[in-house]
Amino acid sequence: MNKKETVHSSQLTVDGPIPYGRQHITDEDIQAVTEALKSDYLTQGPRIAEFEESFANYVGSKYAVAISNGTAALHLCALALNVKEGDKVITTPITFAASANCVRYCGGEVVFADIDPDTYLLDINKVRELLESLPKGTYQGIIPVDFAGRAVDLEAFRKLADKYDLWIIEDACHAPGGYFIDSKGTKQFCGNGNFADLAIFSFHPVKHIASGEGGMITTNDKELYEKLLKLRTHGISKNESEYKNSLEFAVGATQNSKLNTQNYPNWYMEMQELGYNYRITDFQCALGSSQLKRADEGIERRREIAKNYNEVFESKEFVKGQSGVVDGHAYHLYVIEVEDRLGLYNYLREHSIYAQIHYIPCHLMPYYRQFGWKEGDMSNAENYYKHCISLPMYPTLTDEQQDFVVNKINDYYE
Asked: Are 394 and 129 in contact (CB under 8 A)?
């Protein structure tokens, strides 16, 4: 695409609809899943650990725990950090509802802080104002979101969190492979565990890595890692060093019988706390591992598409976009702000371009309004919502399709 060459949209046609995002499944992916389906394990087998190890290496964390989906990953993070009734946790209103809901699952209270109108990320200054307005200890944690694929400056958030003894869950669902540059000039990849206590990812089909459904939690904290493993599987432990019941009970010894073993039997296990069945399958992990091999290639193409959009829209007065975009942006979404958003949305759909809106501010969802949140509380987020629209962004989007999208937008406004 060349921004100096404008083709009237009547000259452009494309075959089939153009969604805002979609999965890319290759023959290699299908082969990997087929092999998993033909193996001895459909679940709780070796491919789960293989995917976890590969993903941890990819983001640079010590540990990774594969989960059934991103929402379950958030829930387990909140459980692992002992979120309980009355705990106050700060997050952004511009995110999928699950980022906030995980706190409510545990009985905690969600406190929203507004976004930076230029980056669309949780505004650290707004968070600081909240923390300074009430006594230390009022808040327990922060859940920043790498919205659209742009990495939050977690180094800055970590300093603030440490001052107020807060934990951090990084919602990195949009940003595997994304990074920010820290104060020493080092690339800090999303989910590497250097600043956040826990980070979560999603493998929904429109994400960078697809496994149908699926998620991942990453951390550098061994204690949290081991707790997550237990919570993922009903709170059950098969680690003999953790057992609480006696060996006699485990083997079923009678009062008069003589123990002929010093080890707990292989069948024995203990449910030690209330956990969940948030396991992922082997064939999902086989697909995830296969997709992970092309993750960098996919991000490179996403950045190329974003560069094309940038070049076209930078001189257009009717478009406002996420400013100050850096190399580390993972571009799950390409969001612009426009006037008459509804008109453009409908016009694009008439031409089989299925743009999307990300997101309706969480604090104005009917569920959260019951806690007193109202219009006017988050002016930046609310103004953003009135104008935002996500354009097609996925690695298999062709130059011709992107030209078609751009020209239709130009036609509508010009």
From this structure: no
